[in-house]
Amino acid sequence: MARYIFVTGGVVSSLGKGLSSASLAYLLQSRGFKVRLRKLDPYLNVDPGTMSPFQHGEVFVTDDGAETDLDLGHYERFSGISAKKTDNITTGKIYSDVLKKERKGEYLGKTVQVIPHITDRIKDFIKNDTSKEDFVICEIGGIVGDIESLPFVEAIRQFSNDVGKRNALFIHLTLVPYLKASDEIKTKPTQHSVKELRSLGIQPDIIICRSERAIPLEHRKKISLFCNVDIKNVIQTIDVKTIYEAPISFNRENLDKQVLEYFKLKTKKKVNLNPWKKITKITLNTKKSINIAIVGKYVDLKDAYKSLDEALTHGGINNNLKINLIRIDSEKLKISEIKRNLKDVSGILIPGGFGKRGTEGKIEAIKYARENKIPFFGICFGMQMAIIEFARNKLNLKKATSSEFGKGGIPIIGLISEWNKDGKLIKGTDKDLGGTMRLGLYEAKLKENSLIRSIYKSKSIQERHRHRYEVNINYKEDFEKKGMIFSGLSPDNKLPEIIELKNHPWFIAVQFHPEFKSRPLEPHPLFSSFIKAAKKYK
Ligand code: GLN
User: Are 143 and 292 found together in one domain?
Assistant: First the structure.
């Protein structure tokens, strides 16, 4: 039977519960165990798919087409395990499942209540779709004490009773702040947070204390005493210089060792930290850098393009380069200032996006990259904008547009009419927005002698998608006559997946999101190649 590790957070959010869970998963895996990572989110959206990245950061897409919390991206990047639909749930989804059952009369006349019906549904999620895992790590979103997370905390409390305390471990991550004015480290917030958790019936087994600086033994002893946790299980995590150091740092502080000790398990293999040491060294010691511009709408929020930023960094590591991301707000990008804004960049990237706002700036940036032969990478919306730019300026279709922006103009980009998913035809819609895009892994065939084929070194690829609109294939020949290459198509030849340009050193735009599959220990070939081209351009 699997052992369950529950990770909760206290004091403040954004302490790095996701990164801690992901690092622990790596360490346990490296010791020879099979691990699964899951996230329970307390908000009422059924999934984060309809949330703006301004609100909640990037929406991460899994192979099987779930739109999930961005922490699942951390999990994948650190553990190397591809997440599934069954690894993320929200309060909204739980309630909607329970209410659907109630409408069908499946509760047989009972009063439907938070306890036991909502908590039972949460417990089902925790156990669902597992096989032969040694560990299932479940992160609870939000912080303990939030009204929203109460049913989750109650459910994991019950769960540990159901499976037996020896099969469930509670990790609580808290903040141990340093007060500059008094030059003191404070343990009180941790004590309060654990008190809160204990009032809900959960005694943490391990406390991870996030701190700016080393926590002296006497302070750790205090936490141990007040929080009723063995001193060996009071684990400090001091801010690391790069996130790739996190698995090394947690191992140094014995997190994985203490977890195994709790479960009375012997390690199967020695932990291998060499890959992390190698990339940490490169990340910290590389002096050379290049500027890459991301022209998008959500540039003010750091997490809005999380996987993309990561994938570019991975591409940089692969080329021994530091990447300076120049985030340019496409809404504010004035056409007259394009040259001044982009003159110091070695590559231009247009990421995924939705809606008309800011598109003219993106289109102008693409024109600038195309005409000045600056390496250009368009992703999803970025590809659609590259098509519109080319239609307007090379095919002279000045009214070229996307039907996503409303009626009128020439819809070179239109709503996907239908597509094939596992032998089933699915129809595109723009009425019901939740979970109705073309989502997850789809195949693309790559054209012989194309740049893309030389990068992937393969005839066919599988990449993750998240789009409602597509390039109208009927214009393909007109585009080709003017020097565009449709170098990747869906297997039925109906849907353009990749375009590139003749007479340009590196101009690639893709309908999918390669950034979701890039991992620090396995950088994505497209990002490595883009950065290599940018390095050459410089
Ligand atoms: N808005 C576009 C579409 O739905 C692009 C989506 C994206 O960039 N992820 O097709």
Answer: no
Q: Are both 103 and 226 inside the same structural domain?
A: no
Determine whether 513 is an active site residue.
Answer: yes
Residues 292 and 386 in one domain: yes
Cα(442) to centroid(ligand 1), Å: 15
Please identify which of the residues 310, 380, 404, 497 carries the catalytic annotation.
380
> Quick one: pLDDT at residue 47?
86
Strands 206-211 and 496-501: unpaired
Range in 233-237, 287-291, 419-423, 447-451 with the lowest mean pLDDT: 419-423
Question: How many domains does the chain contain in total?
Answer: 3
Estimate to the nearest angstrom the gap between the alpha carbon of 88 and the chain centroid: 12
- pTM here? 0.93
Residues spanned by the domain of 76: 12-168
For 483, counting Cβ atoms within 10 Å of its Cβ (0-12 exposed, 13-18 middle, 19+ buried), the class is: middle
Q: Read off the pLDDT of residues 206-264 as tens digits, 9 standing for 90 and up.
A: 999 999 999 999 999 999 999 999 999 999 999 999 999 999 999 999 999 999 999 99
Burial of 107 (0-12, 13-18, 19+ CB in 10 A): middle
Q: Can 56 be counted among the known catalytic residues?
A: no
Pocket test for ligand 1, best of 59, 404, 442, 470 (most atoms within 8 A of CB): 404
Catalytic residue among 67, 314, 515, 524: 515
| Secondary structure class of 134 (helix, strand, coil) | coil
> pLDDT band for position 430 (50/70/90)?
confident
pLDDT on residue 199: 96
